[in-house]
């Protein structure tokens, strides 16, 4: 994932919670259309920061969590992960939380990707339900 509108990694860090400066407020205004590039094993995806920010508890939605994957030389985030799965992971953010496994990705691989990107239990439950797994009810 590359931060297209930022000149360097420090500008994205300035927008982190707890950084109060006029630059941070300008950054928030600019974030509406600021784009990031995500490199998944050599395949680049581009999206807006606001798309990722809809899910702040996830790996991509939390600037602090995703920062460890930032490559300042290429100005992008790099993940050595399953490429076919990422179409569906990015769609999760773009669709407001819909999760669908690509037909060419095995169930176990896709569930690993859901865990890696920290989409949460609700996303995992939706995925398992769509795949036909029977939901276990808690017993008293």
UniProtKB/TrEMBL annotation:
Domain BTB positions: 34-134
A family per Pfam: BTB_2
CDD domains noted in UniProt: BTB_POZ_KCNA2_KCNA3 (cd18403)
Subcellular location: Cell membrane
GO MF term set: voltage-gated potassium channel activity
GO biological process: protein homooligomerization
Keywords: Cell membrane, Ion channel, Ion transport, Membrane, Transmembrane, Transmembrane helix, Transport
Membrane topology reported for the UniProt record: Multi-pass membrane protein
Superkingdom assignment: Eukaryota
GO cellular component: voltage-gated potassium channel complex
InterPro entries for the chain: BTB/POZ_dom (IPR000210), K_chnl_volt-dep_Kv1 (IPR003972), K_chnl_volt-dep_Kv1.3 (IPR004050), SKP1/BTB/POZ_sf (IPR011333), T1-type_BTB (IPR003131), VG_K_chnl (IPR028325)
Protein name: Potassium voltage-gated channel, shaker-related subfamily, member 2
Organism: Xenopus tropicalis
Gene this protein is translated from: kcna2
